[in-house]
Design goal:
Number of helices: 9
Number of strands: 44
Strand content: 25-35%
Structural class: alpha+beta
Largest sheet: 8 strands, antiparallel
Radius of gyration: 28 Å
Length: about 700
């Protein structure tokens, strides 16, 4: 039987080789523009790579026998950005020599086919290799979400020959949505394991082999055993509605990521964030250029359902047409969003003010004939360098923001783009207004040691930033930015409780009062000391967050002056209240939050001397595990202690409110599912939905039940 299993494994491998050879024999050399993109990505090492195109290949793939080879689907070659992303992904596999590990894994699978652990580890190896390759390839896109969309669109084109799975080529639907989730959540990756883990794993393997080698097997007399009663196991479908819902992994998630669904509607791929809205309506139209009047091929369309906050992303067809089918009645917003070379364009039939104007569909309505006129975009590009003049470490964590005064004249807006692996960036979709540029590290909050925001060309001070203007070409190229670890102003001090004891692990965030996205952060040490470095001057808001230790969040306005390089500011935190509980339906069964959200407010909180926006719930490295489907980052006006807090969801049916201000507290929950509402909120045998609850400092309330029912 063992030899038969090995023979089957070898036969599967041979079938995969034959299928691969058939594709290669029918392939031809890639067009020159594809070769130029390969050289742009791989540099001089591109000379050792064979680049082919094939009609038989539905997905791009790479392999390496005597020579590394990348094969592109023939229908992809007309999409320059798609070719760039595909080549970047496959080149990562070649550059990291993933094929060596994969060949060894394939050999182990043939020899130990009977061991389920081998199959599982082999699958994890392929998935992790793709995670790293995706991370590198997403650096060639404006944002990770754009690369995730590319994966979804290519998946709809078909899969490789089934036999080629024997060589580990292609991917399953399950692997695809895991990769998309990794991109959307923007989780940090290590391209290579730390040396200590490698050494530890090697030692553990040697010890295991030594232990197994000492074991002996001796026969024993058979003992009659009564058959055990089989457990009651229920199984269910892995996915519904033709799509595959991505499981949310508890952990420190980025706000707004939501659940991601990849599905195929009438042969067209779509990506959904949150819960896909469904109904008996549709909306369709065409995207055209305002300058030429011609259709905008593959424009990225964004439809947001204002009831459940579910969002659908699709690409328009080659003739600029788009259609959203099977959607419900109710309020929506529709946009041409983040289409290369064009500004975002909103559908606004009712001339509603705002960036995302709403419109409504009636029951059974099929609105068609919409024409969205997209204006050509302005763009700015350049490179980001470290202090040594080279590409900075962890470049994949950096983004460039082009910011400008909002129409209200008081606040700022921005467009952004991720910095690519070679340090370059392109911020597209701009309106033509003069802009300032800033580089920010969006993972600094969770990692605690990142670059402070740097304004172009290389300054911590907003008033020293260089203004970028545009000419008739709609472009501003060569705008380079050099990062700095030293310089700027410093705000430091201690954080203590009301008894004077230090509060370690406190998250301190600083940003300008009129600009939420230029935040800088730090954490207190064991002595309660913090130091936020690399600050600019001006009026800033300082947030102090230790809710995981039971304290109420607070924020204070501080004026920073260039003449004072280091400023001292101490904080005293007050003991808060923790409230937690469960979500159930009217029958008492667990109710899943989906994309719902909730918060609580204490009567009598201070709003400060002047209204100002501030962060609430910004994730940090001490945040509790949160599935984030229904969680969000709120912008709450005021100063002093926060009188409200948003709900965190450790599981899909439970909630936690940390660091609530003591006093008379009212809970609010918005079930973002159609035709459902909160029926009652129970605590200690009574309904507190309208009456609220009185709390005291340090109190921990665990028995709150939110009951959801139909409207």
């Amino acid at each position: 039987l063992y030899l038969l299993g090995v023979a089957v494994g070898l036969a599967w491998w041979l079938m995969a080789v034959v299928a691969l050879l058939r594709i290669i024999r029918a392939a031809r050399s890639a067009p020159p523009h594809c070769r130029r993109l390969l050289i742009e990505i791989a540099g001089r090492r591109a000379a050792r790579v064979q680049l082919l195109t094939s009609r038989r290949a539905k997905q791009p793939f790479a392999f390496a026998w005597h020579r590394a080879t990348i094969v592109l689907p023939e229908d992809l070659c007309g999409d320059r950005q798609g070719v760039r992303l595909a080549i970047a992904h496959e080149w990562s596999h070649i550059d990291r020599r993933d094929f060596r590990a994969w060949f060894l894994a394939g050999l182990v699978r043939v020899l130990f086919f009977y061991q389920p652990l081998v199959w599982w580890l082999r699958g994890q190896l392929r998935l992790c290799q793709d995670y790293v390759a995706d991370a590198r390839a997403s650096g060639q896109a404006a944002a990770p979400e754009d690369y995730a969309e590319f994966l979804v669109v290519r998946a709809a084109a078909g899969s490789l020959h089934p036999a080629m799975a024997g060589l580990g080529l292609g991917f399953t639907k399950s692997e695809l949505y895991r990769r998309v989730v990794m991109l959307v959540q923007n989780r940090p990756l290590e391209s290579r394991p730390p040396r200590r883990w490698t050494v530890a794993a090697t030692c553990a393997a040697l010890l295991l082999v030594s232990a197994v080698a000492t074991l002996t097997i001796s026969p024993r007399r058979a003992v009659a055993v009564a058959p055990a009663e089989a457990p009651d196991v229920q199984t269910g479908p892995a996915s519904t509605g033709g799509g595959c819902e991505v499981p949310r992994t508890p952990g420190k998630s980025r706000s707004g990521a939501g659940a991601v669904t990849i599905s195929n509607v009438s042969g067209k791929a779509e990506m959904v964030v949150g819960v896909r809205p469904r109904g008996n309506c549709s909306i369709s139209g065409t995207v055209v250029s305002t300058t030429t009047g011609k259709p905008v091929a593959r424009a990225r369309m964004y439809l947001h359902y204002n009831v459940t906050h579910g969002s659908i992303f699709i690409n328009a067809a080659g003739d600029g047409t788009f259609v959203f089918k099977d959607i419900p009645k109710g309020p929506f917003s529709l946009q041409v969003s983040r289409t290369p070379g064009y500004q975002d364009t909103a559908y606004n039939p009712e001339s509603t003010p705002g960036r995302f104007p709403a419109f409504s569909l009636h029951d059974g309505e099929h609105r068609s004939g919409i024409v969205l006129k997209a204006k050509p975009a302005y763009r700015v590009s350049g490179r980001v360098f470290g202090e040594n003049g080279k590409v900075p470490d962890h470049v994949g964590q950096l983004i460039v923001l082009a910011w400008f005064k909002a129409d209200d004249g008081r606040t700022y807006e921005h467009e952004q783009a991720q910095v690519k692996a070679d340090g370059s960036y392109v911020v597209d979709g701009l309106s033509g207004k003069p802009v300032y540029l800033m580089v920010a590290n969006r993972r600094a909050e969770t990692e605690g040691d990142g670059y402070s925001p740097i304004y172009s060309p290389s300054t911590f001070f907003r008033d020293e930033a260089k203004l970028v203007t545009f000419d008739a070409s709609h472009r501003a190229d060569g705008v380079d930015i050099t990062l700095r670890k030293t310089g700027g102003l410093v705000l430091e001090g201690t954080v203590r409780d009301e008894s004077g004891h230090p509060v370690p692990e406190t998250f301190v965030v600083v940003h300008h009062r009129d600009m939420l996205f230029d935040r800088v952060s730090a954490y207190t040490d064991a002595r309660g000391h913090y130091a936020v470095r690399g600050l600019g001057d001006g009026e800033v808001l300082v947030h102090v967050d230790a809710v995981h230790r039971g304290f109420v969040k607070t924020r204070v306005s501080v004026n920073l002056d260039k003449k004072t390089a280091k400023m001292q500011r101490n904080f005293t935190l007050h003991r808060g209240v923790s409230i937690s509980g469960t979500l159930v339906d009217q029958d008492g069964k667990p109710w899943r939050i989906g994309s719902s959200f909730g918060f609580a407010r204490t009567t009598g909180g201070s709003q400060g001397p002047a209204p100002t926006l501030g962060w609430s719930g910004l994730p940090n490295k001490y945040s509790i595990p949160n599935i984030s489907d229904g969680s969000a980052v709120f912008f709450i006006p005021g100063e002093g202690d926060y009188d409200s807090s948003h709900m965190m969801f450790p599981t899909k049916t439970t909630f936690v409110l940390q660091g609530m201000m003591p006093g008379h507290t009212t809970l609010f929950f918005s079930p973002k599912k159609e035709d459902e509402k909160v029926i009652k909120i129970l605590h200690d045998g009574r309904d507190i939905m309208t009456s609220g609850i009185d709390t005291k400092p340090g109190q921990e309330i665990k028995d709150v039940t939110i009951v959801i029912g139909g409207k």
